[in-house]
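Q: Hi! First time doing this. I have a protein sequence and I read that you can turn it into a structure. Is that right? Here it is:
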Amino acid sequence: MLNHQPAISLKTSEAFAVILLLLSGISYGMIKLELVPHIPVMLAIGALIVYGLFKKVKIIELESSMIEGAKAGLGAVMIFFFIGMLVSSWIASGTIPTLIYLAFELVSGKWFYAIVFLVTSIVGLSIGSSLTTSAVIGVAFIAVSDTLGFSSAITAGAVVSGAFLGDKMSPLSDTTVLASSTVKVELFDHIKNMAWTTVPAFFISLLLFAGMSPEIGSADYSKLNGLQKALTDMNLVHWYSLIPLILIGVLAVKKVSSILTLGAGTFSAMGISLLVVERSEWGMLPGILYSGYQSKSGNEQLDSLLSRGGIESMLFSVSLVLLALSMGGLLFKLGVLPALLQGLTASLRKVPVLIGSAALSAIGINFIIGEQYLSILLTGNTFAGHFEKAGLQAKNLSRVLEDAGTVINPLVPWSVCGVFLSGVLGVNTIEYVPFAFFCLLSPVLTLAAGFTGMTVSRIERKAVA
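A: Yes, that's right. Below is the predicted 3D structure, encoded as structure tokens:
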């Protein structure tokens, strides 16, 4: 979008007023009226079109800017669809159920909070959904914590930290794909680059949770044991179910394209599912690639965890991405975002200020709108060109989008994730925020990287002969 010239020039003060009214309207619709984000964003698009017409911008230019904006998300849309198919096929083949089973094997009475963080991290990485991990695995850990008289706030903090580590780092996560696609970074390069801030945040969080864990040798883990038994009863736990995971790991190391890697993971899982699913149900397998896997174990918690995936499950994210990018296209065409950045052009060439500004933008949008998708999309499209001008590789920006965008949403009480988590975990957002160590450390570490220059990748300039 930054490659297109705005149709009009605005003063910074007018652009600020426009964006303030826009974001206030979106946040009011989502928080006060409890609308899905699509409706406020669509109304914002309508308001921008009216504003553009008032400024005498031709409707054909406005329509063109929306289309150009949406085009930027087509790569993410295709990967979203492949991820939807991968998730459903991995459940049918037993890959995800086997990973969950193995994660529960790590649980013991000692180092309780650290184990909660570790297990939710593993499950979050394996399914790529922070909310699903929190709603099922998190609720089980909260129940155990309450039974043993442990702190629900610390337990919730450990659950949120682990779940959003998975949401940030898993190739199955829509936010991971969205951040990489928004600034055009190869998915696995993006994940690899995030390790510079994620690994230190993980180990610091693990040590903090270990230090806060009560000393106890035994506990009642009947809920977790019940889930394990249900998984084995459903014939979903097998060693060979891990083959798709190993295959994806090998292809990722060899830097095979994301589409081919995800496709290979799906194809291999569908083959293995023929060994897991009864022959009479083979005819239903192709259908789950669209509608998702439906678990019918009779165990409500397990069915909630495993009934997911498919192309259909990605339509919510895909539609919001296209709408948000269309709105972004209008903001650029109308000169709103260029005007906001005009006064900072000189300072944005300085790496620490540039990275800090991008991080604060992602954090600010999370607090104003309460939506992590928009914090990634708007910040990514606003700062992409400036990172390039500063000689920084795009993967630096995609890392900032996750460190200061994805993991901040659960810390905002009125955000989509904050409201959901406080409801399912039974712990107020304000109570668990001080203990969501991973989420708190991620933006700090990404800012530290920007100010020190460590782990910041620069564009290699070819020498002129």
